[in-house]
Amino acid sequence: MDVSYCKLMSSFYLDPLPNGLVQDCYKNGQVQSVGRYKNGKMDDDFRFYYESGELLKIIQVKNDEYHGLLKIYYRSGQLKSVNNMLKSGESLHVIDDIEFNSVS
User: Fold this and answer.
1) CA 90 to CA 104: how far, in whole Å?
2) DSSP character for 26?
3) DSSP code of residue 91
4) Sign of the C-alpha dihedral, residues 16, 21, 26, 32?
5) Domains observed in the chain
């Protein structure tokens, strides 16, 4: 999937390290992901979308590592699951995993 032509960067390259808002898009123009970088590292809630535009997941990232909740959604917008993630060194630990039933 080629997303290189559709990037929104807010003060992304003012420093040698990337900073600011980054938005990638699918070939059809729909937003694929949105998040912020701080001092060259992912540091925000990153949102990912289905190619049709609906929210797919939200990942909490701090200093380039998963840190907090991972929420995954059905295309209908209903919450599918919530995972409490913590990356420690090279390991990714799921602290809690809650699965929701679909009513779609």
Assistant:
1) 37
2) -
3) E
4) positive
5) 7-99 (2.20.110.10)
Place of tokens 């209903």: 78
Give me 34's structure tokens: 């949105």
pLDDT in tens, 2-16: 334 455 554 445 556
**The whole model's pTM is what?**
0.72
Tell me which amino acid residue 86 is: L
Phi, psi at 51, each rounded to 5°: -60, -25
CA distance 59 to 42: 11
| 51-99 per-position pLDDT tens digit | 999 999 999 988 888 888 889 999 999 998 888 877 655 545 555 556 6
| Residue partners of 85: CB distance under 8 A and separation at least 6 | 59, 60, 66, 67, 68, 69, 70, 92, 93, 94, 95
